[in-house]
Amino acid sequence: MDIETLQNIASTNEWLRLWPEMTLAVSALVLLLLDVLIPARLNQWVVRTGVIINVGLLGCLLADLWVHLAGDSSLYPVGTYFGGLIQIGGDAAWYRPFFVLANLMMFWIAGIYFRKQQLVRTEFYAVANIVTAAMMLLTLSNHFVTFFVALETITIGFYVLVAYSRRSNFSLEAGIKYLIIGGTSTAILMLGLALLYGIGGNLQLEGASGDPLLFSNAATFLEANADNIITKFAVLAILASLAFKIGLVPFQIWIPDVYQGAPTPTTSLLAVSSKAAGVAALLLLFKENGAFSPMGEFVVPILSIVTIASLIYGNITAVGYTNLKRMLGMSGVSHAGFLMIAALIYIRGDGVFWISGAILFYLFIYLLGSFVTFGIMSVISGDEDEDQDMYDYTGLYQTRPFQAGVLAIGVGSLAGIPPLSGFIAKLGLFMAAFQSEMYLLLGTAVVSVVISIYYYFKWIREAFHQDTALGDEELDNANSKKIFAAPKWVDATLLAALGLSIIWLGFFPSNLISSWSLF
Amino acid sequence: MLMSHYLVVAGILFSIGMFGVLLRRNTLVMLMCLELMLNAVNLLFVAFSRYNLNLDGNLFVFFAITVAAAEVAVGLAIVVALFKRKDTVQVDAFTEMKN
Question: Per the CB < 8 Å rule, is A323 touching B99?
Fold first, then answer.
């Protein structure tokens, strides 16, 4: 490689293109530094600095998105940078603000959580910022090295976040389980990458190139060698690691235990951001001219089976759980199944042009519904974070009607009840599945919605009804034992805002949808 | 040595690691088996890199080693914290969570 080639590559290192990721990563370091420098009585300002940085970043990213949508390419240049490692453009403009919003919501839930736990705080926010930055980087990756490093930064950050509550046996147990299963998935991902690198770099084969891990080179190679057994194995191994992140069925083993043991803010971030990052990475690999796009015909049948299994297994297992964090974990598996239906339509690429918009809409509504639910859970739960049972909510409506109402909105939206926006999100996916004639998947999805209504409404029923078998006096006794804490005004405002936006988007989805040219 | 020799060794190492994670009951041994799997893949990368006369594989190994180091640092920290609470690192002791 002569000096001129190196200079050409170096000239593509435009660091300013990564300003949101760099802001988050630097802010993580700033938080840790502030924690040391600031006197103890001003300690709360450390976390507030983190919130301010994230709010500012979210605002900038939304402005960025607006510029992107306006289509002025001089302000929003699309292209590859860092010698092909990073590609700016496509859906990343949507996923960046999505991850920052999820991070902010997680900050809010972490604030409620840390009021009830005796733990150091700053490191949690710092690691969460780094994980979010890595998720944003993952959606920008254009080379399997970037892909690998971003995915592993997310995973290792989550090991820390899951095991964060060092005084809780449950959190540590969840941490070690997540670590061992996650480490295995890392090894499988690396095995897939090594095989792809080895066979794609073998210049005796057609389509091979010197840098087979670059997405476009991988696509060229897979196009020419789609029937090779080693490439098939490599593709499946790489997809398996993504399925682990999304929580699809053969790789869902970790979900109930890790969701239950992890601190509630970590659980919410696992449920929303980690799933979204996995789906975004999957779409990235299978986009037009994406790395795996020539393998579409090979993976669609396998992924269809995985999708159906996720929908059915997730919902049926969730029926049996009364621990809410376990139940939300398994219902998350079925939500991953819904997202996979859309991803399958995307992979097949047969004409439903608005499908990536429908996926974004579903993810956004899932974010709102999840964070409302997790918000209510952290407001109501005591200091035993892992022990949040459905039957703790009996009689919530009688003492705290506001919380019960918001809970009903959030859970109803997750279940997909009209007129809440969760219904519109599911409707979009169903219409897409109908248009591309995937009737078996559509039927499974409809059945699984019906099952999910059963366990979601069991929870709502507990919150709204009292045990009528008791007499009046016993009822008063039972009620007086249960003291549901009143939310602070910040929590109440945010809960109300989230609940209202769920209703509003249910009635007027066009405000969001039209910007994605969905219908 | 032929390429196939490296492939076989890497395959054996990876299998030992995988079965170790699945079958062993000691958390520390399981962490070591995870490392064994990652090192098997590193061997694969270096061997392919030499065979294809292309340095990218060697480069990838640096990233892989860094990731493995970070993973083991977090893993050992969790194991130490668990050992302080439970006085054992056998996985059979970590079964508190159920519905």
Answer: yes
Would you tell me which residues 344-363 of chain A have a C-beta closer than 8 angstroms to some C-beta of chain B?
none
Determine whether A254 is exposed, middle or buried from the number of CB atoms within 10 Å of its CB (0-12, 13-18, 19+): buried
Place of tokens 């500012």: A56
Residues A180/B89, Cβ–Cβ less than 8 Å: no
- The partner residue sitting opposite A201, judged by closest CB among B52, B85, B97, is B52
Q: Which residues pair with A214 in a beta bridge?
A: A143
CB A414 within 8 A of CB A333: no
Residue-wise DSSP of A266-278: HHHHIIIIIHHHH
Instruction: Tell me how far apart the alpha carbons of residues A25 and A97 are, in angstroms, rounded to a whole number.
Output: 15
- Average pLDDT for runs of 10 along chain A of length 519: 80 85 94 90 88 94 83 69 85 90 95 90 94 95 94 96 92 94 95 94 87 91 91 95 92 93 94 95 90 91 95 93 93 95 89 84 94 93 82 85 93 91 91 90 94 93 74 56 76 93 87 55
Distance from C-alpha of A353 to C-alpha of A357, rounded to nearest angstrom = 9
Residue type, A283: L
Which one, of A14, A107, A20, lies nearest residue A63 by Cα?
Answer: A20
CA distances to A321, A351, A392, A492 from A453, in Å:
14, 31, 20, 26
Tell me the domain boundaries of chain A.
12-516
* CB atoms A201 and B74 under 8 Å: no
Q: What gap in Å lies between CA B45 and CA B6, rounded to an integer? A: 10
- Cα–Cα distances (Å) from A463 to A293, A401, A411, in that order, read 47, 9, 11
Q: Which residues pair with A389 in a beta bridge?
A: A323
CA distance B15 to B32: 13
Domains located in chain B, CATH noted: 3-93 (1.10.287.3510)
Nearest to A161, CA basis, from A172, A148, A147: A172
**B62 inside 8 A of chain A by CB:** no
Dist CA B26 CA B11 (whole Å) = 23
Contact between A143 and A85 (Cβ < 8 Å): yes
Closest-CA residue to A99 (of A24, A31, A158): A24
Helix (H) or strand (E) holding A410: helix A401-415
Q: Which two tokens stand for residue A223?
A: 């196009």
Please, are residues A356 and A346 in contact by the beta-carbon 8 Å criterion? yes
Q: Which of residues 171-210 of A touch B (CB under 8 A)?
A: 172-177, 179-180, 183-184, 186-187, 190-191, 193-195, 197-198, 201-203, 210
A385 touches chain B (CB under 8 A): no
Q: Give CA B85 to chain center in angstroms.
A: 25
* pLDDT tens digits along B1-23: 788 999 999 999 999 999 999 99
Instruction: Give the DSSP letter of residue A121.
Output: -
CA–CA separation, A350 vs A508, rounded Å?
Answer: 28
Using CB atoms within 10 Å of the CB of residue A143, give its burial: 0 to 12 exposed, 13 to 18 middle, 19+ buried.
buried
